[in-house]
Prior knowledge:
By secondary structure, this protein is mostly helical.
Amino acid sequence: xxxxxxxxxxxxxxxxxxxxxxxxxxxxxxxxxxxxxxxxxxxxxxxxxxxxxxxxxxxxxxxxxxxxxxxxxxxxxx
Length: 78
């Protein structure tokens, strides 16, 4: 999980300065916007080789929810 959080922080500038954990509501971070959303999509695509839609990301509330979505998508590919 920490590697996933580190990847998110590297990809999304507004996440760099905050403490993030698995229960962080990433969409409530100050300055959350469509650029952050697209950055998450790109990071997940390049790091985990899966595609998430904007809707799928927006349905996730916490970092853990997002991680679980990534894991489910990866399992679907196997």
